[in-house]
Amino acid sequence: MVSRRTAVAIAAPFAIAYAWCVAATVIFCFGVRHLQFLAFPYLQWFEAAALFRLIGWTARLWIVIAAVLPSVGVLIGVTAFVRHKRTPVRQREMKDKPLYGDRRLATERDLRAGNMNYR
After folding, report:
1. By C-alpha distance, which of 14, 27, 16 is closest to 67?
2. Which of 16, 25, 48, 67 fits as disulfide partner to 42, beta carbons 3.0 to 4.6 Å?
3. pLDDT in tens, 34-58
4. Helix (H) / strand (E) containing 6
5. What is the DSSP-derived secondary structure letter of residue 100?
6. What span, in angstroms and rounded, lies between the C-alpha atoms of 16 and 113?
7. d(Cα 105, Cα 86) in Å, to the nearest integer?
């Protein structure tokens, strides 16, 4: 039996990729003002991107805009997820320790251990 965590780890990239494609298709269809193209399975952006060299400059611009906006959203989401999951190791280590070592004056013993002459 596959654990829930493994199943989520396997399914999440596919779900994110499909959500990216749906977002790009919606932005593209609204941008070129042809909402009649917006139909399931929402892969119209890929069809338009395949014809990139054959279409006008405004449709090309909307293809690029439709690709950039969801990509920025995915980048922000992945960055936020990684920052949330990763705990700063150095902060945990230094939480109870002062920045520059002990806060007491060196004793005679400490000075001798460091080869310092004490008078």
Report:
1. 27
2. 25
3. 888 788 888 888 888 888 888 888 8
4. helix 4-31
5. T
6. 59
7. 37
